[in-house]
Write a structure and sequence with these properties.
Layout lengths: L2 H10 L9 E4 L9 H14 L6 H6 L5 H13 L5 H17 L9 H10 L3 E5 L5 H10 L9 E2 L12 H10 L6 E5 L2 H9 L3 E5 L6 H7 L3 E3 L2 H12 L2
Parallel strand pairs: 1-2, 1-4, 2-3, 4-5, 5-6
The structure holds magnesium ion (MG).
The site of magnesium ion has 9 residues, from loops.
Length: 240
């Protein structure tokens, strides 16, 4: 059922075969149901700093680093990048509102999928543009035995952030695997762009308000309607 799309990607890239040894997971919207809170925190922080921004812009920018999101708005409004002080002030405000938005729930079936993958001796990496302390610190509690320093790439490791391929290339370097041995799970168009630009087979999970077509158009080989659907089909994908 999925082998056609997987073969298409492998052939396009001239890879020998798809033989998954690691799965790279995005965090926001994949492991945590955090996007609503991120979007509204960004809107508040930007608007209070005199910058036009809507929740919809928040979803469009998902995956970018905070610095890149702020610069994007500055270039539109002021025709220049933000200074370090401006970036720091706005990101601090955004983080404050995000933290105040209460406890972030995990995405249903995210932990179940991670534990299933671990039991199959397939490696797991986190690849996120986020530097949000509460979520990063909560990973060990919410997804026990999965994440440590050695298998994480966060906002603190990257210069460019998504949609640049850098975060996924760093993870690929850490894993010491070939690109055809890796699969990516992403929920955002810019995240899918980043992963496919790094040459990786990408599965889209649609956990937000987007039309699933957007994820296909960004380069996802397979798109699932939420994590449960991916969990239910896991065996078929991995043994395609
Ligand atoms: Mg995401």
């Amino acid at each position: 059922m999925f082998s056609e799309q997987i073969d298409k990607f492998i052939n396009q890239k001239n890879y020998p075969a798809f033989s998954p040894k690691a799965v790279f997971f995005d965090m926001d919207g994949v492991l945590y149901d955090s996007m609503k809170n991120h979007a509204s925190a960004w809107t508040r922080a930007m608007n209070e700093s005199g910058l036009p921004f809507t929740d919809y812009d928040g979803y469009l920018n998902e995956g970018r680093t905070g610095a890149s999101t702020i610069d994007g708005v500055f270039v539109k409004v002021h025709g220049r990048n933000s200074t370090d002080e401006e970036k720091e002030a706005i990101y601090k405000l955004k983080s404050k509102y995000f933290e105040a938005s209460g406890k972030t729930e995990t995405i249903p079936f995210a932990n179940e999928l991670l534990q299933k993958i671990k039991s199959q001796d397939i490696e797991i990496y986190l690849v996120t543009g986020s530097g949000q302390a509460t979520l990063l610190q909560g990973l060990k509690e919410h997804f026990p035995g999965i994440f440590g320093q050695e298998n994480m790439v966060t906002a603190f490791d990257v210069k460019h952030g998504k949609p640049h391929p850098e975060p996924y290339l760093i993870a690929l370097g850490k894993s010491k695997l070939n690109p055809w041995e890796v699969m990516v799970v992403e929920n955002a168009p810019l995240g899918v762009e980043s992963a496919t630009a790094a040459g990786l087979l990408t599965v889209g999970v649609n956990t937000g308000p987007l039309d699933p077509k957007v994820l296909h158009d960004s380069g996802a080989s397979l798109v699932f309607d939420g994590m449960k659907e991916l969990y239910d089909n896991w065996h078929k994908i991995i043994t395609n």
